[in-house]
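ingest -> validate -> predict -> emit
validate: passed (alphabet ok, no gaps, 98 aa)
predict: started
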Amino acid sequence: MSSIFWIILAGAVLTFLTRIGGHLVLSRFDHIHPRVEVALNAVPAAVLTTLVAPAIATADWRGVVALVFAGLVSLRFNALTMFLAGAAMIILLRQLPV
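emit:
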């Protein structure tokens, strides 16, 4: 098997272990301090920011328009709808002549 297969498999296993490890640690507590709960609720936004910030910094105008459009859609709809709308927008914009 190729080395790429083993890299993907190792990444999957490590991702699973970090997720299950966090669950096991938090399940040992009867109640979670409100500050910890607020911090855990902020993690998805922080991860999304780390994905979007480099994309918007290196994107051309089409990428910026698609990211802003996806952000606006996310204010009203769920994450799947936002993703599909952003993907559709970038596909449509890339069809325009430069």
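The chain has a mean pLDDT of 89.
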